[in-house]
Design brief:
The protein contains nine helices and twelve strands. By secondary structure, the chain is of the alpha/beta class. The protein has one domain: 3-Layer(aba) Sandwich (Rossmann fold). Strands 5-6-2-7-1-8-9-12 form an eight-stranded mixed beta sheet, with helices on both faces. Strands 3-4 form a two-stranded antiparallel sheet. The chain has a two-stranded antiparallel ribbon with strand order 10-11. Helix 1 packs across helix 9. The radius of gyration is 18 Å and the shape is globular. Bound molecules: adenosine-5'-triphosphate. Adenosine-5'-triphosphate (ATP) binds next to helix 1 and helix 8. One of its GO terms (biological process) is iron-sulfur cluster assembly. Keywords: ATP-binding, Hydrolase, Iron, Iron-sulfur, Metal-binding, Nucleotide-binding. Belongs to the Mrp/NBP35 ATP-binding proteins family.
Length: 274
């Protein structure tokens, strides 16, 4: 039976019958906020944003975990330089991998022999694995659990929204994607599933001129009108910059500039959840 006391949805759940609650909440875990990071399509920087957000929250003194729900294309371990680590499986559950700063991380790559072993599974097995990452991993006490979703509005995104008590989702997009139907679809999916959309981060929004203050916009996407119409806040715009690429190539600990660029976005997310 679900443990309602530690469930982040306990205040939203209303008079839902406890016995019929779909959420198998591990009583060992006490997670205050679960934030899904979503994108309409692949390669827009969703995993990079998940890692920047998690690290910035850690820097602010919160207890944070990352659940890599991108089962067939997990990139979180590599972004954190943890690709050689493996999770420990106990009778009582799975101990996540700890980054140097104490960030707790769970990814399928921590359970396979080699990082490049492909996962050739059908949708229901993938969805079941994501569920287990929520129910069987010993997250213990967390202020924030960041869930890096696979791109799009497929099976796994649906499972996460159905079985995990998400506090809200953050949508990542790039400018030319923003005005397209794809992002609107992802936003509409979250709304249909009664999941709050905390806002949109426009990634690769501009390039900063190295010699002046000019921000060079490469695309003409009209974000603000689009978001105003959809009543969704813009959490921030991130430039296309080497310091953010360095998160992937050199690890988060070498990306101070990227962390500085991201901080206002973290602050807005924290405020949204107050
Ligand atoms: N603001 C940025 N400036 C420069 N490069 C970036 C930026 N954001 C992300 N990238 C790069 O873009 C690539 C894709 O990023 P990432 O893996 O985070 O995307 P994703 O949306 O999670 O992809 P996937 O669809 O595989 O889940 C990476 O090489 C990353 O370093």
């Amino acid at each position: 039976m679900a443990s309602c006391e530690s469930c982040p949805s306990k205040d939203k759940c209303g008079d839902k019958d406890r016995d019929n609650c779909m959420i198998e909440n591990n009583p060992i875990n006490d997670v205050k906020h679960i934030i899904g990071v979503m994108s309409g399509k692949g390669g827009v920087g969703k995993s990079t944003v998940s890692v920047l957000l998690a690290h910035d929250l850690m820097k602010k003194g919160y207890k944070v975990g990352i659940l890599d729900a991108d089962i067939t294309g997990p990139s979180i371990p590599r972004l954190l330089g943890l690709q050689d680590k493996r999770a420990t499986i106990l009778e009582t559950g799975i101990i996540p991998v700890f980054a140097d700063n104490g960030l707790k991380v769970m990814s399928l790559n921590f359970l396979v022999d080699e990082e490049n072993t492909p996962v050739i599974w059908r949708g229901p097995i993938i969805a079941g694995t994501v569920k287990q990452f929520w129910t069987d991993v010993l997250w213990e006490e967390l202020d924030y659990l960041i869930v890096d979703l696979p791109p799009g509005t497929g099976d796994v995104a649906l499972t996460v929204m159905q079985v995990m008590p998400l506090t809200g989702v953050v949508m990542v997009s790039v400018p030319q994607d923003m005005v397209s139907m794809i992002v609107a679809k992802a936003i509409n999916m979250a709304k249909k599933m009664n999941v709050d959309v905390l806002g949109v981060i426009e990634n690769m929004s501009y390039i900063q001129c190295p010699d002046c203050d000019t921000q060079i916009k490469m695309f003409d996407g009209d974000i603000k009108t689009f978001l105003d119409t959809a009543h969704i806040p813009l959490l921030g715009e991130l430039p296309m910059t080497k310091s953010i690429i360095n998160v992937a190539s050199q690890g988060i600990n070498h990306s101070d500039e990227a962390m500085t660029l991201f901080e206002p976005i973290t602050n807005k997310i924290i405020k949204e959840l107050e």
